[in-house]
Design a protein that fits this description.
Elements lengths: L4 E12 L2 E12 L3 E5 L6 H8 L7 E6 L2 E2 L2 E4 L2 E4 L2 H8 L2 E4 L11 H11 L5 H14 L15 H13 L5 E5 L7 H17 L2 E5 L3 H7 L2 E6 L2 E6 L1 H6 L4 H9 L6
Parallel strand pairs: 3-10, 3-11, 8-9, 9-10
Antiparallel strand pairs: 1-2, 1-4, 4-5, 6-7, 11-12
Helix pairs in contact: 3-4, 3-5, 4-5, 5-6
Length: about 260
């Protein structure tokens, strides 16, 4: 694994009203790391991801991807916020998969994946569709390319969403509880795709409640509660000997450590 910093988050906060949903988070992620983010509902995990790719605008702090500030740049000694077109260009480097699939219902799986490369990256339609077919094969959906979302299971729709994100050739993937909307029997097929991406060396931040998957695939586990990052440890240490009392309580509640 390379030690080159890919993502740096410095003193990041997101405040809604008077409440800090994300509270002064510090995080550095190197290339190839698979960072699992766990914690109770309402801990700020999803908001943190949304701040990283600027779906939510942070109240304080900064996010740097490959050394580039996601919010703007210094000009003549002053910070100049990015114009929306520049923000959109920077966000292309980050892929995100949500709890819900957000597919276009009127498009086939192939066209759902091809639309980004065609409209955003400016690929020719034939090139975009060839890339989409490649990405759908990657998630084992070659036999379903001509189907629309309503003809696919939830697990298949989520795999299309992953293929769509990967077609933009991101350097960082964000997964926001990608299995939470799935029936239990469909969870495994989505986790296997994420596992395969991890084995290929994709850098990922994964918000998840799948503790066994977290143990097996993560290189680091971050525990959040009340917007704060309370623990950052390798999976073996986090699950075997958590240091923070709140982390111990959480793991007992989800039956991830013995009483």
């Amino acid at each position: 694994m390379s030690a080159v910093p890919l993502l740096h988050i410095h003193s990041l906060s997101k405040i809604f009203g008077q409440i800090p949903v994300v509270d002064r988070v510090e995080l550095t992620v190197t290339q190839g790391e698979i960072v699992m983010i766990v914690g109770p509902s309402g801990a700020g995990k999803s908001t943190l991801l949304r701040c990283v790719n600027r779906i939510e605008i942070p109240s304080e702090g900064e996010v740097l991807l490959e050394g580039v500030n996601m919010a703007g740049e210094q000009r003549n000694g002053k910070f100049a916020p990015d114009r929306p077109v520049v923000t959109a260009r920077k966000r292309r480097r980050i892929g995100m998969v949500f709890q819900r699939f957000n597919l276009f219902a009127h498009l086939t799986a192939l066209d759902n994946v091809a639309i980004g490369p065609r409209r955003v990256l400016g690929m020719k339609p034939s090139e975009a569709r060839a890339l989409a077919a490649e990405q759908l094969a990657r998630v084992k959906l070659s036999d379903h390319m001509t189907k629309r979302p309503t003809q696919l299971s939830g697990g298949q729709q989520q795999r299309v969403a992953i293929a769509r994100a990967m077609a933009m050739k991101p350097v960082l993937m964000l997964f926001d509880e990608p299995t939470s909307a799935l029936d239990p029997e469909l969870v495994g097929e989505v986790l296997e795709v994420i596992r395969a991406l991890a084995e290929e060396g994709m850098t990922m931040l994964v918000v998840t409640h799948e503790m066994q998957f977290c143990r097996e695939v993560g290189t680091r586990v971050l525990f959040m509660d009340s917007g704060r990052m309370l623990e950052d440890a390798p999976p073996r240490q986090f699950f075997g000997n958590p240091q923070h009392a709140r982390a111990k309580e959480f793991l007992r509640r989800v039956h991830a450590i013995p009483n």
